[in-house]
Amino acid sequence: MKDHYSFISPIYNTLAKLVFGSQLKLSKTCFLEGLSAKKILIIGGGDGLDYKAFQKQLQGEYWELSQSMLSLAKSNLKDSRLSFHLGVYHFRPEIRFDEIWLHFVLDTLSDEEIDALLVFCKKSLNQNGRIYLADFFEAKTGYQRFVSLAMIQFFRIVTAHKREDIPNYEQIFQRNDLKKTSEKLFRKGWVKAQIWIPESF
Ligand SMILES: C[S@@+](CC[C@H](N)C(=O)[O-])C[C@H]1O[C@@H](n2cnc3c(N)ncnc32)[C@H](O)[C@@H]1O
After folding, report:
1. Is residue 111 assigned to a domain?
2. Cα distances (Å, whole numbers) of residue 12 to 48, 111, 158, 194
3. Which of 7, 94, 102, 190 is least surrounded by Cβ atoms within 10 Å, i.e. has the fewest?
């Protein structure tokens, strides 16, 4: 499998901080609570650097499609109790999680791939489990629209990013019978952190 992030992985986090400061990290950490008691599934976590400060509280599974990102995550999160896996997360009925983190990963997938992943995610949740989404939403200002378009073009060239738009998360999550229970906005709502739970378990 080709590693589309091999070129960018060593500079990804620095680049993100240059453009967004601490906002993306904040969106990925604002809903953390009771971590030590939870089993967590992280899908597309990248280099894992933003989770480093609280890694000792992390247990569960970390899935990455990029070998270079996964190697960085293993090193950045070496004091965690996560197991690291290369490839696309696949559902195993005997393994359930209390929380699933989808942080800036769904915008790299087609709508159909998101639907398929959400089906797996829902089946993989424990009773009272939740999905923690953090991602880009529709740009709210002219400047944001410009940066958003530039980022999409950049990632299309560098990482073979498939999309030309931002997924309509609300619509996609709702059609998968998920209900939003919390939300925090960053950069006027260009970036959002949201908690979603299944309509029924
Ligand atoms: C835009 S980067 C974001 C990385 C990280 N979540 C962050 O916020 O810095 C998207 C990451 O998701 C990974 N990825 C994309 N599709 C994936 C999938 N189906 N399963 C696991 N990882 C995936 C990519 O390899 C890449 O590292």
Report:
1. yes
2. 11, 24, 11, 23
3. 94
